[in-house]
Amino acid sequence: MERLSDIGEIKRILGSHGFTFSKAMGQNFLVNPSVCPKMAQLCGADKDKGVIEIGPGIGVLTNELCKVAKKVVAIELDSRLLPVLDETLAEHDNVKVINADVMKVDLQKLIEEEFSGMEVVVCANLPYYITSPIIMKLLEDKLPIKALTVMVQKEAADRLCAVVGSRESGAVTVAVNYYSSAQKLFGVSRGSFMPAPNVDSAVIRLDISEKPRIDVSDEKLFFKMVKSAFAQRRKTISNSITSGLSISKDDFKIACENAGVSPQARAEALTLEELGKLSNAIHDLK
User: Fold this and answer.
1) What is the pLDDT of residues 216-257, one digit of tens each?
2) pLDDT tens digits for 107-121?
């Protein structure tokens, strides 16, 4: 359906199905005709690959993904949109819509059942309120996916794509860099959506690494340490990490010496490699 980015057509379709927007679900549908084709072209999909889309809405991005991918599986939480998607995606025979909460879906099983023999990428316009949990689920589940291309709030894009060790970095920045390499593709103004949100957006792409970008002795300890370090980011790591991990200042000082890190540093000043060395040094104290 080629007129899906036309506001009049969108209103007609939604009106015919009695659909009203839900603020609780963070529903802001793309109406800028240039954005979705660009996302579909840059997400890494092609005629040999499968795509998982999260939150297709009325199917504007889905429609473009169907043109470039072998198969698209769209996961939509709002059951009210299912008849809308039946109409807007009727011309495509390479799409399947699943009514489910992506946070509860066994994505490993879904990939095995729906994309046998295919490489898989993820492409989505994510609701702002659940951006980080969805991205972390996709990364932490260690799924056989090549890349995540997602539209997020501009502020979130800046944090996700920041350099670890810079003032903009946070715990989620570390996690993203641990599992992938991130890049910001392009900005999207708030006027590109209906209804228009109060903030601008950006499209980012995370290319998943075949293995984590640093070696850590205990992944669980590493992420617990990182979370503790950034939970109180204005404090020195000596205060934030010892509190979060319940270890003594003396032991932490020894770990810092072994890792070549200052206990008076703040979390945002440490590189990914330094965080990894510190985590390993703490692990070695046990």
Assistant:
1) 999 999 999 999 999 988 899 999 999 999 999 999 999 999
2) 999 999 999 999 999
First to last CA, the chain: 61
H/E stretch holding 253 reads helix 249-259
Query: Given pLDDT bands bounded at 50, 70 and 90, which one contains residue 158?
Result: very high
Neighbours of 93 (CB within 10 A): 8
Are residues 99 and 79 in contact, defined by beta-carbon separation less than 8 angstroms? yes
Peptide bond into 83 cis (omega under 30): no
pTM over 0.85: yes
137 sits in which H/E element: helix 131-140
CA 173 – CA 57 distance, rounded (Å): 28
- Across the chain, where does the E strand assignment appear? 29-30, 49-54, 71-76, 95-99, 119-125, 147-153, 180-188, 193-194, 201-208
The domains found in the chain, sorted by start residue, are: 7-208 (3.40.50.150), 219-284 (1.10.8.100)
Sign of CA dihedral 154, 160, 161, 167: positive
